[in-house]
């Protein structure tokens, strides 16, 4: 409770760090903040051309099938890789001013989460124009997004703290996230995985998250309750363990930096 109270007292600093991240992401570019919408829109155009005209994946409107799964994955991968170097990248600030160090990875994940919310505007527009549309099950989407946010935040706490002591971690994460992506049913459906391997795939925390996004946005059905239960368990487990690990490791940050 003391930690939450301290975070609340520094809420303005957290807000400023998130705003700084959003402002500097496209600083100096002509379109500026509009790239938040243009980038996913251009990706969608590429997917549409490739999978509609060149590669026939055998899935109706495969470009949408892929797009609705890539959006939550990009948020997760960005949160993981960007948070790894976040503490080291702010070492001068950490050495000079006292503030809850945990604010730094939170600001990184919050910035990525805001970007995902903006991208959802493009997703909804694509669903409508593609003819798939949107129905009442969309009310479950904010729940899944918040649970994914908690899961990503818990992992961000862990990797940002560990990277202070093991600097190679941020480079290894690039390989891990690439392998993790191919081990998650993003480019393919879970039904394509051999039955004997499906229990292993279900141990992947991102599998139920991707399946829930796809159920809501592509299939327009209620997400599987067992999937939602798994997402809840993974999210609670990682946010608690991540917080405890960060709090323990942050004690020697100044010496290590």
TrEMBL record:
<feature type="transmembrane region" description="Helical">
    <location>
        <begin position="30"/>
        <end position="50"/>
    </location>
</feature>
<dbReference type="GO" id="GO:0015920">
    <property type="term" value="P:lipopolysaccharide transport"/>
</dbReference>
<dbReference type="InterPro" id="IPR000412">
    <property type="entry name" value="ABC_2_transport"/>
</dbReference>
<dbReference type="Pfam" id="PF01061">
    <property type="entry name" value="ABC2_membrane"/>
</dbReference>
<keyword id="KW-0997">Cell inner membrane</keyword>
<feature type="domain" description="ABC transmembrane type-2">
    <location>
        <begin position="31"/>
        <end position="249"/>
    </location>
</feature>
<keyword id="KW-1133">Transmembrane helix</keyword>
<dbReference type="InterPro" id="IPR047817">
    <property type="entry name" value="ABC2_TM_bact-type"/>
</dbReference>
<dbReference type="InterPro" id="IPR013525">
    <property type="entry name" value="ABC2_TM"/>
</dbReference>
<keyword id="KW-0812">Transmembrane</keyword>
<feature type="transmembrane region" description="Helical">
    <location>
        <begin position="102"/>
        <end position="132"/>
    </location>
</feature>
<protein>
    <recommendedName>
        <fullName>Transport permease protein</fullName>
    </recommendedName>
</protein>
<comment type="similarity">
    <text>Belongs to the ABC-2 integral membrane protein family.</text>
</comment>
<keyword id="KW-0472">Membrane</keyword>
<dbReference type="GO" id="GO:0043190">
    <property type="term" value="C:ATP-binding cassette (ABC) transporter complex"/>
</dbReference>
<feature type="transmembrane region" description="Helical">
    <location>
        <begin position="172"/>
        <end position="190"/>
    </location>
</feature>
<feature type="transmembrane region" description="Helical">
    <location>
        <begin position="225"/>
        <end position="246"/>
    </location>
</feature>
<keyword id="KW-1003">Cell membrane</keyword>
<keyword id="KW-0813">Transport</keyword>
<feature type="transmembrane region" description="Helical">
    <location>
        <begin position="62"/>
        <end position="81"/>
    </location>
</feature>
<dbReference type="GO" id="GO:0140359">
    <property type="term" value="F:ABC-type transporter activity"/>
</dbReference>
<feature type="transmembrane region" description="Helical">
    <location>
        <begin position="138"/>
        <end position="165"/>
    </location>
</feature>
């Amino acid at each position: 409770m003391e930690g939450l109270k301290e975070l609340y007292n520094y809420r303005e600093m957290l807000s400023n760090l998130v705003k700084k991240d959003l402002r500097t992401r496209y600083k100096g570019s002509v379109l500026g903040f509009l790239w938040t919408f243009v980038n996913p829109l251009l990706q969608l155009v590429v997917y549409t051309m490739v999978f509609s005209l060149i590669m026939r994946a055998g899935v109706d409107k495969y470009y949408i099938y892929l797009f609705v799964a890539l959006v939550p994955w990009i948020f997760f991968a960005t949160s993981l890789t960007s948070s790894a170097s976040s503490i080291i990248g702010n070492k001068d600030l950490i050495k000079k001013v006292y503030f809850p160090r945990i604010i730094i990875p939170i600001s990184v994940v919050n910035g990525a989460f805001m970007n995902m919310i903006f991208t959802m505007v493009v997703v909804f527009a694509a669903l409508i124009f593609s003819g798939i549309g949107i129905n009442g099950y969309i009310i479950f989407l904010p729940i899944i997004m918040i649970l994914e946010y908690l899961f990503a935040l818990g992992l961000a706490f862990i990797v940002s703290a560990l990277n202070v002591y093991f600097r190679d971690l941020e480079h290894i994460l690039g390989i891990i996230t690439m392998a993790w992506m191919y081990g998650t049913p993003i480019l393919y459906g879970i039904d394509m995985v051999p039955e004997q391997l499906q229990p292993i795939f279900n141990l992947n925390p991102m599998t139920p998250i991707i399946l829930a996004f796809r159920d809501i946005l592509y299939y327009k059905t209620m997400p599987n309750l067992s999937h939602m239960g798994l997402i809840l368990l993974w999210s609670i487990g990682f946010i608690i363990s991540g917080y405890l690990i960060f709090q323990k490791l942050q004690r020697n940050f100044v010496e290590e930096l």
